[in-house]
Amino acid sequence: MSRLAAAAAGALLVILAVVGSAAAKTTIEPCSTADSCAALLGYSLYADMKVSEVAALFGADPAALLAANALDFASPGAANRILPAGLLLRVPTRCACADGVRKSVSVRYAARPADTLATVADVVFAGLASADQIRNANGLAEADPDALLDAGQILVVPFPCVCLNSTDNNLPAVYLSYVVRVGDTVESIAASHATTVTDLSNVNAMGSPIVAPGDILAIPLSACASTFPNFASDYGLLVANGTYALTAGNCVECSCGPGDLNLYCTPASLGTSCSSMQCSNSSLMLGNMTSQPTSGGCGVSSCSYAGFINGSIATSLSSGLQPTCPGPHQFPPLMEPSTAAIHGSYLAPSPSPGPGEAGGAVPGSSDSGASSHSLAGSLSPSVHRLHQMILILSLVFYLHM
User: Fold this and answer.
1) 369 with 118: CB under 8 angstroms?
2) Is the pTM of this model over 0.90?
């Protein structure tokens, strides 16, 4: 073996030791009920991937994935757009209660040749789950995390998430599970997500504002809440400020911001078979509004979305007097997915709009332990850059044997 190969092999062992020995921390929310909430997973692409590939990895709808990131979900061929490695995406998920804690347990992953529990956790899912967590979720307590998995083996992959009553400081919020990356600080994370160090510290029960790569933080994002009845299939819909969500079989698109935190829903162009969206006893369609100046102000009538109930789109007609007539509604800007290499998120920090007036409060969780959460240790995931270094060193090693 050449000196170069020996040095590479030694460096490889050092890197693996560092990755495997460090302890990552994750915010955990205890729970005791069977309810769930809307949540987001912060996923860093480990390679250039099509939108449809990322969506399939998480069992998500490609259009819903794009909408959650304010990317144009209606453009032709959007699902086949290639997203660059290193991009941070927000993946919509349901945060359920399993084994007494909040987690997302809807993802099933089919192992590929050369996969191990460690690479599935650290590389494929970019540290959102640890090898230990995947091992325990699949009853593989004795499995070596570095042993090859059988190709095609189906794994349940649990991801950390929190609900915290879907509020932050008594305002509607959706929580993003974010894996701390190299170079991150609590200050930089707070600034890039339009929150504060104090808020992040409180939400994650941090004794001091210090994080390490691999830690998973719960980040509160201001959101627009829905007030649909609890028998609606999209009950509890939350949309992060500056983004969109699709519902009612992709027949309805709902947006939040940028001017306020009132949920605003209109017909979407993606649904193939949609029920009527006209408000009863009115000529107004979903999302339409009429205004008429009067001596006492402005008479306003609007047709709003009221949930997806028994396979049909429910609408609600409201009329009232406002001080002034409202102007045209402002929508969050939609961007085209880029194909250039980018290490960050498409979403810039959203402005802080005024509080919602008609959105209402998010239906509260009945968890007895919803206010009790902490940072719990688990096996640390490696970051993408370390994985790349390992691959390079491995290649050097084999080339010089």
Assistant:
1) no
2) no
